[in-house]
Design goal:
This protein is mainly beta. The chain contains no helices and five strands. The radius of gyration is 18 Å and the shape is extended.
Length: 94
């Protein structure tokens, strides 16, 4: 027998990715560029090397400035390049 579903019952959303990184540019309106660094072993030599990924993140209040450490979370596409949103400013730049 088919189970009747309640229209007000919603499925649980999948967990969203979160990253912490450094703001390297705040020249755009409501957008910051966040550099995410991760350390991975070199495929041949095994030495730890730093890989940097620059992501554009939505900052509604324009509150994050260059040098700030921010936490960003994955979201729906907001523009051609923007798929992340600033959740909080972890550390302010001095």
């Amino acid at each position: 027998m088919a189970e009747i579903t309640n229209p007000q019952q919603t499925e649980a959303r999948n967990a969203r990715k979160t990253r912490t990184g450094l703001v390297v540019s705040d020249k755009m309106e409501k957008t910051v560029v966040v550099a995410i660094e991760r350390r991975v072993p070199h495929p041949v030599y095994g030495k730890m090397v730093t890989r940097t990924r620059r992501l554009k993140a939505h900052d509604e209040e324009n509150s994050a400035k260059v040098g700030d450490t921010v936490r960003i979370v994955e979201t729906r596409p907001l523009s051609k390049d923007k798929r992340w949103r600033v959740v909080e400013i972890v550390n302010r730049a001095r």
